[in-house]
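On clarity, I found the account of how folds are encoded harder to follow than it need be. Since the whole study asks how a given chain folds, the encoding of that fold should be made plain. The format is easy to grasp once an entry is in front of the reader. For illustration, here is how one protein appears when written out as sequence plus structure tokens.
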Amino acid sequence: MPNDRNLLLKLENLSARIGRQVVLSNVSLSIKTGECVAVVGGSGAGKSTLLRCLMGLTRPASPFEGRLVFNGKETHFPLLQNARKPERIAYVPQNPDQGFDPLKRLAWQWRQASRIITGASDFTDRQKQLLEQLGLKPFGRSFPHEWSRGMQQRLLVAMALIGEPRLLILDEPTSALDPLIAAQVLRAVKAYAELHDIAVLIVTHDLSLAARNAHSTAIMNSGRVVEFGETATLLSSPQSDYGRLLVKHRDWTVLSNPQSSGSITAEQSFDAVS
């Protein structure tokens, strides 16, 4: 990977195992400051395991090889359990149900998140601006179920941004939402990230999502990154067999229409030739 002073994250040769089974093998990728990168793969490709390793989690998969440079700080994965976890990485779960307590009002949950992340529960001017820029209304006395799914997802993103992260990880950001609502949420998140120079890592099984939003894309299969590069180049001339399999079953010209909600998943591409 090139030596670039704008490089925010550089992952080299990450390998991890659960028990004796190797679940990640020599995974490498890079993310520049303010860049949007997608990791695409089917179920069991290793996407979730990769996320957990990037966030410094060592269970259930234990990293045994590789190094991570993030925000100027280097971590060797075999020593990760004794090292400080990477700071300024924020994670947004794929389903709002995983992020909210249905019995607590949204205002209370926001104050708790702020207290845990910043040490203070005060509602600051910056936090008000954050909510406004993501198109969110005042909480009032609302419970989670009184907001739409799209608004709930935006609020999860806002909570992740309280701590001013350098990298925002979106785990399957469209899986729990209607396609048009999902597109609106992603546009709002990308606009905020670009404004504040925050890198975004989208993890998805939907190659169309990567094609619409990511500058660069990594394709994962069986615990390996089989291809990584600029998204446009990958779509036009994939170099790996699995990359060609994903690309050949889609007319990518429809992506010039931002309202198009068609998509193709890694599982669908595999099924098409099975």
